[in-house]
Amino acid sequence: MAKAVGIDLGTTNSVVAVMEGGKPTVMINSEGSRLTPSVVGFTKTGERLVGQIAKRQAVLNPENTIYSAKRFIGRRYSEVQSEIKNVPYKVVPGPNDAVRFSIMGKEYSSEEVSALVLRKLADDAAKYLGEKVTETVITVPAYFNDAQRQATKDAGKIAGLNVLRIINEPTAAALAYGLEKKENEKILVFDLGGGTFDVSILDVGDGVFEVRSTAGDTHLGGDDFDKRVVDWLAEEFQRDQGIDLRKDRQALQRLTEAAEKAKIELSTALETTISLPFVTADASGPKHLEMKLTRAKFDQLTADLVERCIGPVKQALADAKVTEKDIDEVILVGGSTRTPAVQTLVRRLTGGKEPNQSVNPDEVVAVGAAIQAGVLAGEIKGVVLLDVTPLSLGLETLGGVMTKLIDRNTTIPARKSETFSTAADNQTAVDIHVLQGERELARDNRTLGNFRLEGISPAPRGIPQVEVSFDIDANGILTVTAKDKDTGKEQKVTITGSTQLSKDEIDRMVAEAQRNSEGDKRRREEVEVRNTADSTAYQVETQIRDLGDRVPSNEKARAEQSINSIRQLVKDNSSDVAKLRQLTSDLQQIAHAISSVAYNQATASGGRAAGTGASSPGGTGSGTTDDVVDAEFKETK
Amino acid sequence: MRAASAKRTTAGMKTAQDDEIKQLKEQVRQEHGLYLRALADFDNYRRRIEREQANAASSGKREIILALLEVLDGFELALQHAEDAPSSLSEGIKAVYRRLLTLLQQQKVEPIRSLGEAFDPRIHEAIDSSPSDRYQPGTVIEEIQRGYRRGDDLLRPARVRVAA
């Protein structure tokens, strides 16, 4: 079946997205941009321009360039008198009080104009995907009536598209966050776009969304914020230089761009510099504009605009007969919700709740529409949506550290294995302690299961090879297998609850790991240093034994002294990292001296302990199987 | 009596089995469809990632070039004023300007012709229009900010004033 796309047909800009491999992707248009202006220009030569190109010729052709067609779609001519005053093109009454745009003597309906925008979006999507696009889901504001919805559907039909469904913009936003899975929750969607502001309150339960109330301001948006900055810059400049930049079209253009850029920068920075060299000139010479704008000043300039959002939010809550305490989820939609003051306001009005904003607010509606389209086209049927492991999975290794095999946020199904060894000579069993969590030490993580692999042939420590594999299937069921490569003996455990933690619990565990990361890292390092010291001691001891009397007695005494000190510190679980490191490196040098003396003495082709020094235990897995990792199991009796 | 009922049960089991087989077949068909779709998606995705990787270097450059073009604009505005009062300082600035221009040329950045050309919204952005004696209506009469392209890629359109 052909791909179905989701389209956010906006007042100012439109966006088109598609499901790919179970994930939504926003598609770029033929101009290389993710946003397409909802603008159509009819030229004198009979061409129809859509999007950015139409916008570029708007000032030359204002009567024949239609923007904000969405404000007219499906409405009666008698209803839109105030809108008509705001646009430079000619709006006339059609049959049955319908709205018509009069363009060079021809009349067009708003459906026809919107169809041209939809057609371009579908064409660009087809180019991006490399296949024809006809199946679509289109979004409309929640307050659209039947006539407006029908007209939007008709626009799709005129564009040659099969409109699978018309869905509400706030519902699409909620879908983008996967909120359809929630039971009996109340969602507030706060949508501050380029030129319109909408608040909606939704109920969700049994996978169905219901719009409880809507409120808004049809003429409030990001453009108003830009204009405040332009006015401030222009007024300051006029006071200093006596020239009103707004009267000069070229200067105004540069000012508007700089203002928007400054606004965007102030979403993350506390201060920005607006610099427009040679912005104008008078008899005394060229003039430059160079001004600092702080976020505090920006907030002050736009305070009343932010305040204007309060009324509609309160209205929507009252109409839905709920209070701020009843709201379970808050979603931010529209680029202007990136403004910190707007976010602060939303938090204040919703009882301090942290809003959902991880999906790009300019694209969240199209993303939700794409998800709905994917469901309707049968693509997401049977839930093939791939899950991820919410927390890392691993096992306990020598010294009580956690060695991770599968990192958090790995897409499942996934499989990973690593080879471990024993920690003591003649160890015949290893304990596998399966852990979940982000902390460095085993004891701080959650235990998922325990089992023991027995019957390992007696051998010096580090020689047996035990392959441990973690296999987590699409349903989150984890199977941990340990296999002795020598005897082929195998033992396994299956754990079902590894992905069934609540979101709160996962968040808590991740936050805890972040909070403790410094201390954890230090403790892990201590363990690793002790492990390295201990295995160096072991290796040198073996080396001395193997070389027998070829070892000079003074070197032997020095080595033994070092080994004893290390053994004592390890036994005491010493956290004197510096001392352990010093002793380890001294011992390695002694070992090196011993082996060179021994080899110089000639003959024997050497024992197995060639004094390579100890490698650090607990290495993080590289993902390839059969890597021998020097992390040893501790034998617990 | 007993035989008859036993027969019916077998028949009942048979239809139940048939139903199950049918159901399973249908399920397999659906699953296979999803599997093929996932494979296709992945294949397409891989191909596009390859293409995007090839573009990534170029688009990283694009961002820097766009920022440099603003600096170039500043030089041009400065030099326009310097022409009124030539000095050794303005000569020096001109040299720096030419250096920047060469650098951009080496990156295959080309200016877009606009003055005297017919207005084309694919490469021009109209800021204003005014009557003109010299030019036909629809012709670019002034370039307010130069536009640039790099190969087929429009870096930014030329900002122009057009004859009314």
Identify the overall geometry of chain B: elongated
Class from secondary-structure proportions of chain A: alpha+beta
Counting DSSP H or I runs of 4 or more residues, the number of helices of chain B is 2
The count of strands of chain A amounts to 27
Total number of helical segments of chain A?
15
- Give the helix proportion of chain B (percent range): 55-70%
3D shape of chain A = elongated
Query: Mind describing the biggest β-sheet of chain B?
Result: 3 strands, antiparallel
Q: What is the typical, i.e. mean, pLDDT of chain A? A: 86
**Fraction of residues in β-strands of chain B:** 15-25%
Strand content of chain A: 25-35%
| Biggest sheet overview of chain A | 6 strands, mixed
- What order do the SSEs of chain B take from the amino end to the carboxyl end, as H and E? HHEEEEEE
Distance between the termini of chain B: 102 Å
List low-pLDDT spans of chain A: 602-631
Strands side by side in the biggest sheet of chain B: 1-4-5
Distance between termini of chain A? 60 Å
Outline the low-pLDDT stretches of chain B. none
**Secondary-structure class of chain B:** alpha+beta
